[in-house]
Specification:
By secondary structure, this protein is an all-alpha fold.
């Protein structure tokens, strides 16, 4: 599969992605039609949900930081370091739980 056309079709036209995937898979195994369309829709939906979640987290963090800076004042270096280590700890904790 062409590395440029495959992802482009995945996001722009599920039917074209399905045709491209079927052509690519013919040499290996005869694919079933609906499975590729369903997989492409699932991938598109998951990526869209992830982008929305990340965007909401960024906006929420920015707004919280703005409000706290105005009410409490700028964070000290030690407070910033503690928050960064806590954030990394949460990410690593979630990563280790999701890979078990």
């Amino acid at each position: 599969m062409n590395l440029l056309r495959g992802p482009t079709y995945l996001f722009t036209s599920v039917e074209r992605f399905d045709r491209l995937a079927q052509e690519d898979a013919r040499q290996l195994v005869k694919p079933e039609g609906p499975q590729f369309e369903r997989a492409a829709r699932d991938i598109r939906r998951a990526l869209g949900a992830s982008l929305l979640l990340v965007g909401a987290a960024v906006l929420g963090g920015w707004a919280t930081g703005l409000v706290l800076t105005r009410w409490v004042g700028p964070a000290t270096r030690s407070a910033s370091a503690v928050l960064q280590y806590a954030g990394v700890g949460l990410l690593l904790l979630d990563f280790t739980r999701s890979n078990t």
